[in-house]
Amino acid sequence: MNKETLQQSMYDLIVETSTNLPKDVRRAIRSAKERENAGTRAAMSLDTISNNVKMADDNVSPICQDTGLPTFKIKTPVGVNQLQIKEAIYAAMVQATKDGKLRPNSVDSLTGANSGDNLGLGTPVIKFEQWEKDYVDARLILKGGGCENKNIQYSLPCELDGLGRAGRDLDGIRKCVMHSVYQAQGQGCSAGFIGVGIGGDRSSGYDLAKEQLFRSVDDVNPTEDLRKLEEYVMDNANELGIGTMGFGGETTLLGCKVGVMNRIPASFFVSVAYNCWAFRRLGVKLSDDGGIDEWFYQEGDKIDLTVGSQSELETAAADSGEKPNVVVLEAPITEEKIRELKVGDVVQINGRMYTGRDAIHKHLSENDAPVDLDGQVIYHCGPVMLKDDEGNWHVKAAGPTTSIREEPYQGDIMKRFGIRAVIGKGGMGPKTLAALKEHGGVYLNAIGGAAQYYADCIKGVDGVDLMQFGIPEAMWHLNVEGFTAVVTMDSHGNSLHDEVDKSSLEKLAQFKEPVFK
Ligand code: SF4
Question: What is the DSSP-derived secondary structure letter of residue 495?
Answer without folding.
Answer: B
